[in-house]
Amino acid sequence: MRSSDGVELAVTAFGGRGRPIVLLHGLMSCAASWEPRASALTPYGRVLAPDARGHGRSGRPDGADPAAWSPDRLARDVVELLGRTGPAALVGHSMGGLSALLAAARRPDLVTAVVAEDPPPDLTGSPPGLLDDMRAWFGAVAGPHPSLAALAAVLGRPRPEVGEHMGRCAVRRADGWWLACDVDDACAIAAHWLRRGLLGELSAVRVPLLVIEAGESVAPPGQLALLAARVPGARHVRLPGTGHLVHDADPAGWAGAVTALLGATGQ
């Protein structure tokens, strides 16, 4: 599909029938990363996963307008997709969780339920230089790597599931294997999170909500519990022993929590 600002967005269909369930990936990831988890959700609906702008098989905006990478624009891409698919449940990880929550807050008529997995509601209190550290780390691991296995090994320390996950989002170029998302584009997205806290806007959600927190969360302590407490009827689940990629670190725990919400909302 083409977004209203002219970016081509790729959407992967994972099967299932009925009302859509839209999976929204995190920063530097892609739609293909959901493949191992999608089968747990197909009994509940038609599972779709877009590649966010600048990620996977999707295009990127022309020019240098920072607004093209803002949380508002990413959420608008989701709303525009739902305008085509009809009302859907949104399951978002990290960056995708922010997009899901903002889309639900602004267009509740298009969202039947939200699962927000370890999103960062407010990073404005982060230490100075965090964006530079992020740029340096992404730049060091993005590529080139001599093989897909080598890429997965580098990103899989200390958590192997990270390497497996990101290996699904790699592309082969002339000089080796790379993560598909450009580091500058990823940092343009993350820069918005460091300048603007979203907790207040996210708390406006009034659809059924499940907030899943990693044992080792990227969110500041207490923020995700506070988010759930501010949304009537929301549930907050913390899965101990998991890193940021909860759905890959504890697939059974993640699937059990997500399908319970989908079942309860008639998905």
Description:
It is a single chain. The chain is an alpha/beta fold. The chain has eleven helices and nine strands. It has helices at 35-38, 71-85, 95-106, 130-141, 148-155, 160-167, 183-195, 199-202, 223-230, 246-249, 251-264; strands at residues 11-15, 20-24, 46-50, 88-93, 111-117, 170-173, 176-179, 209-214, 235-239. The strands form two sheets. It has a seven-stranded mixed sheet with strand order 1-3-2-4-5-8-9, with helices on both faces. β8, α9 (223-230) and β9 form a beta-alpha-beta unit. α4 (130-141) runs antiparallel to α7 and α5 runs antiparallel to α6 (160-167). It starts with 10 loop residues before the first strand and ends with a helix. The mean pLDDT is 97.
Structural class: alpha/beta
Indicate the percent of residues in helices: 25-40%
Mean pLDDT: 97
Termini separation: 24 Å
Largest sheet: 7 strands, mixed
The best one-word shape is globular
Order of helices and strands: EEHEHEHEHHHEEHHEHEHH
Number of strands: 9
Give the low-pLDDT segments.
none
- In DSSP terms (H or I, runs of 4 or more residues), the helix count works out at 11
Strand percentage lies at 15-25%
Strand-helix topology:
Layout: E1 11-15, E2 20-24, H1 35-38, E3 46-50, H2 71-85, E4 88-93, H3 95-106, E5 111-117, H4 130-141, H5 148-155, H6 160-167, E6 170-173, E7 176-179, H7 183-195, H8 199-202, E8 209-214, H9 223-230, E9 235-239, H10 246-249, H11 251-264
Parallel strand pairs: 2-3, 2-4, 4-5, 5-8, 8-9
Antiparallel strand pairs: 1-3, 6-7
Helix pairs in contact: 2-3, 4-7, 5-6
